Amino acid sequence: MTVEPGSKALTRARLRQNRAAMDASARDDAADALRRTIGSWWDENGQDAAAPGGRAVASFQPMPSEPAVNTVNTALHERGATVLLPVCEPDFQLLWARWTPTTPLVRYGIVPIDHPDGPTVDLTDPDGDAPSVSLMLIPALAVDETGQRLGQGGGYYDRFLARWRALPHRGVLAAVVYDDEVLPTGSFDVLPHDQPVDLVFTPERIIDLRSR
After folding, report:
1. Total Cβ atoms within 10 A of residue 55
2. Domains of the chain and any CATH numbers
3. What span, in angstroms and rounded, lies between the C-alpha atoms of 20 and 171?
4. What sections of the chain are H helices per DSSP?
5. Average pLDDT over residues 75-94
6. Which in 38, 106, 157, 167 has the greatest CB count within 10 A?
7. Among 91, 73, 93, 92, which Cα is nearest to 83's?
8. What's the CA gap between 202 and 181, in Å, rounded?
9. Structure confidence at residue 90 (pLDDT)
């Protein structure tokens, strides 16, 4: 096995093992806490986090081992937010489709992740018709104390975020991890294409990194 620089592969393997060892009760408790934590942040900040009128959230459909943000998505929808979920396209392109609790989810393509069955928009197209996103929730295996994110290694988000960050107006970028996945700086290698986050949401904490 080839080990990535800075032991990224070993760190990913350890974090995945830890997630796999979580029991159902711990996952449910974390999901409830995340719903409260992110819902509270949205109540206070969602309207003002992006350009005027921004009431959209770009989130994700979690894999079984990931923090259960599907409960968060429902809570934000109930608060009146437009919820968008990613659709993985060829050439590492992420498009986004609107989701509601009644939207059918389908699975096809090169990444085995459910996504809404409906029209897609490009959130990185400044001239497109995508809604203004106040908050973007992204998956991660870990985040360090400077906001650097350790993802699954697929490359979709780093490519997308490089374009999204170049927009004149964008929302707050937040990673969602478990509490023990906020790691000391230097725990994993950071490469030039890696994109840091503004906030970290855990079941028990909100870590604002924008002033660091």
Report:
1. 19
2. 5-208 (3.40.50.10420)
3. 32
4. 8-20, 24-45, 70-78, 156-164
5. 90
6. 38
7. 73
8. 9
9. 78
